[in-house]
Structure to design on (246 residues):
């Protein structure tokens, strides 16, 4: 959960801190002074919220919640206790969970999930994306990979896959698999952290991507699906890519 918190923190900093300059490429710079607690905010992070109490049964024991997605009248909860995906209705009543095993539609280790175009997708065993209907009924395997990935983001052009250093053969943290099977790589691995596995998620929203080991927020360029810098977070010269911060 700390990793998810870091992602949220970076996004909030980008949206709430005062812009103080422009660098080459004409994208804004947000200066963050870690020595002060006085952060200027343009608006509150949340304007309203509500709670849903999830039903606890022998089949729906949850722990180490990694991700929650609300879609229509369903609440999808990824619990890393087993780990697998649990489905509740909008009132919090337990509906079902993905069965563990090696059979069709069964999962071994779900590390990420997403609802895309009214279809539920899970990344299972780091190498397989499986599709289900919104009630959790298995449809088919959408994709299979030779190398491990921890999280995914589905787009009309293809799938962005995050490798948080679990694939020792790759020199990039983000891979993009196009709809026709071509591959592009982004975010070169930090040389100081290349041998450290980091269980975290790439945060993609409205075409923007945040990666905790980068002080640049990127956006997907329309037409090419490449990443281009959208915002630089300047921590006044302090950043984890320096050896002293390892």
């Amino acid at each position: 959960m700390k990793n998810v918190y870091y992602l949220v923190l970076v996004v909030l900093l980008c949206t709430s801190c005062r812009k103080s300059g422009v660098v080459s490429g004409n994208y804004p710079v947000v200066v963050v002074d870690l020595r002060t607690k006085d952060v200027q905010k343009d608006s509150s992070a949340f304007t309203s919220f509500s709670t849903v109490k999830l039903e606890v049964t022998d089949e729906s024991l949850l722990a180490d919640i990694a991700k929650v997605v609300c879609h229509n009248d369903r609440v999808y909860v990824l619990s890393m206790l087993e780990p697998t995906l649990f489905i509740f209705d909008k009132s919090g009543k337990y509906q079902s969970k993905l069965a563990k095993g090696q059979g069709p539609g069964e999962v071994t280790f779900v590390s990420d999930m997403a609802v895309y175009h009214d279809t539920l997708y899970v990344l299972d065993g780091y190498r397989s994306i499986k599709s289900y209907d919104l009630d959790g009924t298995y449809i088919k395997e959408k994709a299979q990979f030779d190398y491990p990935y921890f999280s995914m983001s589905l787009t009309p052009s293809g799938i962005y896959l995050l490798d948080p250093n679990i694939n020792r053969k790759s020199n990039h943290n983000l891979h993009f698999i196009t709809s026709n099977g071509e591959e592009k790589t982004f975010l070169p691995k930090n040389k100081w952290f290349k041998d450290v596995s980091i269980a975290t998620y790439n945060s993609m929203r409205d075409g923007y991507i945040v990666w905790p080991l980068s002080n640049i927020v990127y956006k997907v360029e329309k037409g090419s699906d490449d990443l281009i810098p959208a915002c630089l977070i300047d921590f006044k010269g302090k950043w984890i890519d320096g050896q002293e911060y390892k």
Remarks:
- The chain has two domains: 1-36+145-246, 58-120.
- Residues 1-36+145-246 form one domain.
- The CA atoms of residues 238 and 244 lie 10 Å apart.
